[in-house]
């Protein structure tokens, strides 16, 4: 047999967690036909001496639902070895959406996932090729993508579709719940990988109102869980509150009979060492046969923000006027107001912040474990010498409070000055415990969301470069399994995540000595010239999707159909 593609001389790590071994890989018609020993000739050969050959990485937490329509490459995920993504996390997506409600769903995404509204409007245009969720999957199939995509059907879009603007005002009637059940059942049968929902109070939508799913009574949640079970496939993705809602996760599992993956278990979120309570509870549930898994992150959750959208203060009652402000002139007036500044200083002090530390947050949406000592000025055109310095050091130097410093810089820059604040997950000993626990699943890459504020879609190369090579906290085989076989198994992605004979040839070839995620860069490549943060990968040698080698970052696919498949119910139907 002659191969279309052969990878020779590498160390094969197959995604199961088993030790790697030297060998070759033969690929034909998009599938692996030889593994370990591949003696035949090939039309193209990739030399992998000194490199690792592994399954393509599987990212279970992205928000590319809109971006995919103007960026079929789904950048930046494939730069970092990701060959399959799940979109629509936390119940946020763009389908189903009635034409009259398109503005509402885009304004929701703008607010809750910090996607630039002008980019969303320009990228999607006026003629969306879908209304229902099955039509959305069909549109993806027709358009094509560079990597494989699966999608969740989201609670927020479903509720808006049935209830309109009332979705953010009240509980649903019994008839409305039945309509939602029908939509979810239809979406799951059409191929949704999961049903996604969120009750997190940090999730705020258009006009500063709660996202629709937050208005759902738990009976509504359970009813939609039953619809998932009736469809017979998929899982539940539940974004909970600050405190884990194990009763909710169990209820959804019992009603649906499906696994539940909840977001997120983060170091420092509840205070020092508190993550261990959730790990122990999860261990007990898994031992009882309950497939309920916390999603964890391998990078600190760091938000870069400006005061046009000060996301880290989003749920503070003090910032309610900011959430409903009409334009930048209104915001400038608020931030210049002496009473607002006084209340801001008092609020910070009341949260344990007199010494610059906010660790004593009073509500689920508060900044937790954040500190002026760790907050950096990341961009300031008027005073470039301040970039990279901490808010605390500059405030002390000028003899003013940190609150007055950041607001002064915001006002003098017309709200363009930016600040980078670590919120949670930066206590490395605790993060290490989360990553080493056998019952967690790595995710929270958030590709496609919070574009101007953070970039964690590089999490896979960060895990390999930092936690494997630098920290030596994980073996290479364990880390590859965490990026491939494990997330694929939990999300029911049946034909991805492993290198095995007959499997689709999603492969990444990387250098374990150099793989890593680069520093954050700000680029202006979104529709309408909007900006985003990116990270470039190092050590990624070759990325292969369904037997096709992807071009290097920044280059377009050659003419012809994109190699990615739509993973309906976790499987490509090609």
Pick out its properties.
21% strand, globular, eight-stranded parallel β-sheet, 574 residues, 17 helices, eight-stranded mixed β-sheet, alpha/beta
Description:
The chain is an alpha/beta fold and 574 residues long. The protein has 17 helices and 23 strands. Strands 1, 2, 3, 4, 5, 17, 20 and 21 form an 8-stranded mixed sheet that branches. Helix 4 packs across helix 5, helix 5 runs parallel beside helix 6 and helix 15 runs antiparallel to helix 16. The two termini are 23 Å apart.
In short:
With 574 residues, the chain is an alpha/beta fold. 30% of the residues lie in helices and 21% in strands.
User: Which stretches are low in confidence, meaning pLDDT under 50 for 5 or more residues running?
Assistant: 353-357, 359-369
- The rounded distance between the terminal residues' Cα atoms is 23 Å
Q: Report the major sheet.
A: 8 strands, mixed
Q: Residue share in helices?
A: 25-40%
Q: Classify the beta-strand content into a percent band.
A: 15-25%
Determine the structural class based on helices, strands and strand pairing.
alpha/beta
Q: pLDDT average, as an integer?
A: 93
Note the total helix count: 17
**DSSP strand tally:** 23
Shape: globular
Cα radius of gyration in angstroms = 23 Å
What is the secondary structure topology, with strand pairs?
Layout (H helix, E strand, L loop, with lengths): L2 E10 L8 E8 L2 E6 L5 E6 L4 E4 L1 E3 L22 E6 L14 H11 L4 H8 L8 H11 L4 E7 H9 L10 H17 L3 E5 L19 H14 L3 E5 L6 H11 L3 E4 L11 H13 L4 E5 L4 E5 L14 H4 L4 H9 L1 H13 L25 E4 L11 H8 L3 H11 L5 E7 L3 H9 L4 E2 L16 H12 L5 H8 L1 H6 L16 E4 L5 E8 L8 E7 L1 E6 L2 E2 L17 E2 L2 E2 L2
Parallel strand pairs: 1-4, 1-5, 6-7, 7-8, 8-9, 9-10, 10-11, 11-12, 12-16
Antiparallel strand pairs: 1-2, 2-3, 5-17, 13-15, 14-15, 17-20, 18-19, 20-21, 22-23
Helix pairs in contact: 4-5, 5-6, 6-7, 12-13, 15-16
């Amino acid at each position: 047999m002659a191969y279309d593609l052969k990878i020779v001389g590498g160390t094969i790590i197959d995604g199961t967690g088993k030790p790697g071994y030297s060998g070759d890989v033969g690929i034909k018609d998009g599938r692996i036909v030889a593994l370990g020993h591949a003696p035949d000739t090939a039309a193209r050969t990739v030399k992998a001496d000194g490199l690792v050959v592994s399954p393509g990485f599987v990212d279970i937490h992205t928000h590319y639902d809109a971006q995919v329509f103007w960026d079929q490459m789904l950048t930046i995920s494939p730069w970092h070895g990701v060959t399959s993504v799940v979109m629509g996390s936390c119940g946020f997506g763009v389908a189903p959406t009635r034409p009259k409600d398109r503005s509402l769903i885009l304004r929701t995404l703008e607010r809750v996932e910090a996607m630039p509204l002008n980019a969303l409007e320009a990228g999607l245009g006026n003629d969306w090729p879908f209304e229902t969720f099955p039509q959305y999957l069909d549109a993806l199939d027709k358009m094509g993508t560079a990597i494989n995509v699966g999608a969740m059907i989201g609670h927020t879009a479903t509720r808006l579709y049935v209830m309109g603007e009332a979705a953010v005002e009240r509980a649903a009637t019994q008839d409305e719940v039945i309509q939602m059940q029908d939509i979810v059942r239809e979406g799951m049968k059409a191929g949704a990988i999961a049903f996604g929902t969120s009750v997190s109070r940090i999730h705020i939508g258009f006009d500063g109102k709660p996202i629709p799913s937050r208005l759902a009574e738990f009976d509504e949640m359970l009813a939609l869980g039953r619809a998932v079970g009736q469809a017979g496939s998929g899982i539940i993705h539940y974004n909970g509150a600050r405190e884990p809602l194990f009763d909710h996760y169990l209820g959804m599992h019992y009603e649906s009979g499906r696994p539940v993956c909840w977001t997120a278990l983060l170091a420092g979120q509840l205070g020092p060492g508190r993550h261990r309570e959730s790990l122990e509870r999860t261990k007990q549930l898994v031992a009882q046969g309950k497939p309920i898994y916390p999603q964890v992150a391998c990078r600190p959750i760091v938000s870069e923000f400006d005061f046009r959208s000060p996301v880290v203060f989003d749920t503070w009652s003090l910032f309610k006027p900011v959430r409903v402000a009409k334009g930048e002139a209104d915001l400038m007036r608020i931030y210049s107001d002496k009473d607002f500044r006084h209340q801001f200083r008092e609020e910070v002090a009341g949260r344990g912040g007199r010494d610059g530390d906010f660790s004593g947050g009073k509500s689920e949406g508060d900044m937790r474990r954040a500190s002026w000592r760790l907050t950096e000025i990341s961009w300031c055109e008027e005073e470039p010498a301040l970039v990279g310095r901490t808010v605390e050091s500059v405030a002390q130097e000028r003899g003013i409070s940190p609150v007055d410093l950041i607001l002064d810089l915001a006002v003098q820059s017309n709200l363009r000055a930016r600040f980078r604040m670590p919120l949670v997950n930066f206590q490395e000993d605790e993060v290490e415990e989360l990553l080493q626990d056998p019952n967690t699943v790595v995710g929270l890459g958030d590709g496609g969301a919070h574009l101007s504020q953070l970039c964690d879609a590089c999490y896979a190369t960060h895990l390999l470069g930092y936690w494997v090579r630098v920290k030596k906290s994980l073996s290479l085989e364990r880390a590859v399994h965490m990026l491939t076989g494990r997330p694929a198994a939990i999300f029911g992605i049946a034909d991805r995540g492993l290198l095995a004979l007959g499997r689709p040839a999603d492969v990444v070839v990387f250098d374990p000595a150099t793989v890593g995620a680069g520093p954050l860069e700000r680029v202006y490549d979104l529709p309408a010239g909007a900006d985003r943060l990116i990270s470039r990968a190092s050590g990624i040698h070759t990325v292969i999707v369904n037997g096709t080698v992807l071009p290097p970052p920044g280059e377009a696919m050659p003419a012809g159909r994109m190699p990615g498949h739509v993973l309906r119910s976790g499987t490509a139907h090609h």
